Amino acid sequence: MLLPVSGESICTSCIVQVSSGCCEQYEAKIHLLSDQEWKEELKNLTRLLHRAEEPSGEEEDAWGRDDAVEEAVWKLQLFYGNGAEGKNYEELLRAKPKGKIPTSRVITLKAEEAGELSVKLDPYIRTQRRGWDGESAETHIWPLIKLVEVTLPKSELIPEGVVLVDIPGTGDFNSKRDEMWKKTIDKCSVIWVISDIERVSGGRAHEDLLNESIKACQRGFCRDVALVVTKTDKLHLLEYLRERKVGNQAIQSQREAVLERNTVIKLQRNKMLKEKLKSKLPADLKILEASELVYTVSAQEYWQQGLLAEEETEIPKLREYIRRRLLDKKRRMVTTYVTEAFGLLLLTDSFNCAENLQNEYSHVSVLRRFVEEKIQLLERSIDQCFAHIERPLQEGVRDARTAYRRLLGACLVRSKGNQGFHQTLKAVCLKNGIYASRTLARIDLNEAITQPIYDRIDPVFGGIFSRSGKPTDGLALMPHIDAFKHSLQEKMTEIGIRNGWKYDSYKRSFLIQEISAILGGLEGHILRKRRRIYESLTTSVQSDLKPCYEEAAQITGKKACERMKDVIRRGVDRQVAEGMFERAQQRMQHQFQQLKNGITEKVKGSIATMLTLASSQGDGLYKELADVKSEYKEMEKLHRSLREVAENAVLRRGMQDFLLRMSPSKAPPPSRFNS
Questions:
Q1: Residue 643 pLDDT greater than 90, yes or no
Q2: How crowded is residue 283: how many other Cβ atoms within 10 Å of its Cβ?
Q3: pLDDT-based confidence at residue 669 (cuts at 50, 70, 90)
Q4: Rounded Cα–Cα distance for residues 519 and 489 (Å)
Q5: 443 Cβ partners below 8 Å, 6+ apart?
Q6: How many other C-beta atoms are found inside a 10 Å radius of the C-beta of residue 4?
Q7: Would you say which domain of life the source belongs to (predicted)?
Q8: How far, rounded to the nearest angstrom, does the alpha carbon of residue 652 sit from its chain's CA centroid?
Q9: In percent, how much of the chain has pLDDT > 90?
Q10: What's the distance, CA 58 to chain centroid?
Q11: For the chain, how far is it from start to end, CA to CA, in angstroms?
């Protein structure tokens, strides 16, 4: 009812975010490329189209069939009009665009109803096709659009706090849009790869998207990946019965055939996806325990229910999934807020306490010495944790040196020779080894030749940043930080009992709560650094190969495609001989070292501040603080109830795991969460 759909091809042309809020109307904000960002794209588009010499023979035929050049021509014609593709960069800078561009580079649309907003929004986000006769102002600025944010009035369909993001294709030729594409994927906590029933059965596009999603699990915030198969009601019964290869039971109706095919696809694709995930991710990741990785959906039947019941369309199942994820996130968020607020109230009340022990500073001094010792131990634990990546890195570098020519050759060879590849290769070189299209599979030469290294490090890398595991395992980072937290909290309790902190229990409780808040905040910092570490291999290789890409991009004229390939091959050979893969290995190890330093510096600084506050005397400013005993009691009650909820959830999951182990033939009953 809101975004465009098509039964034939990809229809959204840019990233579209949909959420609900407190607004009274349906609203869309269309963000455009800045003037500088458009100039960068314009320069690349004109360089892509420029030919110093006329190609001939096979390459002449290739110009009309090259996807990269087709897209470049179409963008320029839409924005500047027919004939724009024949002008150079300077001429186009002076040309007047056909559409009106707002100075704010943001277009805001509003409507009372979803259908009304959909009509207004459609020309901005629907992929524009060659031969289309539309001449609207919206169409003319379509090449400038980089992001659309849609906000609905408060709705049960999309609960507040949930953001659904439609991410078309596998990237974009424009650097800014391509970077936004990657960052948006990495920010998603769940990724659903959407593919209709016919493409899943016969194409490979969804597999490319699944591979990108698995990479997002390694470098971003994603914790869950699923394949959502759509339009499952589309089935020609006679053809299906003729080609049917499963089951002995006779099919009596269209409905039975649809349900049987859905079951078969679920089994096949679930197995394929689970194997793919197991080969790339650590064995203890929760996603590998998921019973459902594939959903078979029919939106048409959800509304009409002529063939399938509502539950059989699996849309209610997806909605329930979103609701559970949202409740879990809100529970964790509220727990964090309550913990921090509780700690501040504890500190405030301790300053108002009439009892102040004379030896308070000695207690804090003991704690400071203990913290210093534990931080040194934490540093050694992190070193041991990160050391697990060294051997896979070395083995990966060895594999890459052996396989890079074969992998590079596979990227540079096409089944039809150079037909339709000449300008695509030029686009790859213009973007330093990467060509991202909204309609074609992503080409990344840097990633292709470093893939043997990733194949070696992926399970270990995922294990290092896994939330599960034990400190004794040595691999996962977070359990070491948790062990550090518990040791500090136990020491504070021990000192309090031994030295009579019973008169200042508020302050002791403050210290314990603040330790939780400080170290809990580290997880977000680690996840943000994780992406830079993971991508450091390809970033390093791309940097080393940049001169050869730039040289290849300048080549024009006869046999330009073969000459570009030759320059790339020789450039890669030269860099490999000079230690390109070894430098990439060193840069990744340096990124790990920087993460360790960042963790210890943050811990030292935050705990030092906390101890300084805790050792302050209850005079001066603190005598003016309000009495917060009632607020303290209320927050203590909330904190206790949240802790009990968390403990009950752990017990419930433990019991389900136990029952599953004891009864391997039976799946556990579905969990029920109360809002």
A1: no
A2: 11
A3: very low
A4: 12
A5: 411, 424, 428, 434, 435, 436
A6: 16
A7: Eukaryota
A8: 29
A9: 34
A10: 41
A11: 28
**Integer angstrom CA distances of residue 116 from 121, 151, 276, 487, 546:** 9, 14, 42, 59, 48
State residue 369's pLDDT score.
85
Binned at pLDDT 50, 70 and 90, residue 488 comes out as confident
Q: Give 214-237 pLDDT, tens digit per residue.
A: 888 888 888 889 999 999 999 988
**What angle in degrees, to the nearest 10, is found between the helix axes of 422-430 and 35-49?**
140
**Residues 153, 347: Cα–Cα separation, whole Å:** 41
Site of tokens 């909605």:
319
CB 570 within 8 A of CB 483: no
Q: What is the three-class DSSP state of 207?
A: helix
The answer to whether 536 and 586 have CB atoms below 8 angstroms apart is no
User: Taking residues 635-644, what's their average pLDDT?
Assistant: 77
Residue 239 confidence (pLDDT) above 70 = yes
Contact 339, 639 (CB under 8 A): yes
Beta bridge partners of 21: 153
Distances (CA, A) of 440 to 172, 437, 502, 505, 555: 10, 5, 68, 64, 24
| Residue 161 DSSP one-character state | T
For position 640, what pLDDT does the model report? Answer: 78
The closest of 177, 178, 30, 228 to 110, measured between CA atoms, is 30
Average model confidence (pLDDT) for the chain? 81
Q: Distance between CA 231 and CA 296 in Å, rounded?
A: 8
Specify the range with the lowest mean pLDDT, choosing from 153-167, 350-364, 512-526, 605-619.
350-364
Query: Which pLDDT tens digit goes with each residue over 134-186?
Result: 556 567 888 899 899 999 998 877 888 899 999 877 777 777 788 888 888 88
The partner residues of 230 in beta bridges, in order of sequence, read: 196
Mapping DSSP onto H, E and C, the string for 483-548 reads HHHHHHHHHHHHHHHHHCHHHHHHHHHHHHHHHHHHHHCHHHHHHHHHHHHHHHHHHHHHHHHHHH
Torsion angle, CA of 475/477/481/484, rounded to 10 degrees? 30
- The better pLDDT of the pair 151, 653 is held by 151
Q: Which amino acid is at 92?
A: L
Q: Taking a C-beta distance cutoff of 8 angstroms, is the pair 232, 297 a contact?
A: yes
The per-residue pLDDT for 647 is 65
What tokens were used for 310?
């509502």
Contact 231, 308 (CB under 8 A): no
d(CA 378, CA 515) in angstroms, rounded, equals 15
**C-alpha neighbours within 13 Å on the C-beta side of residue 295:** 23
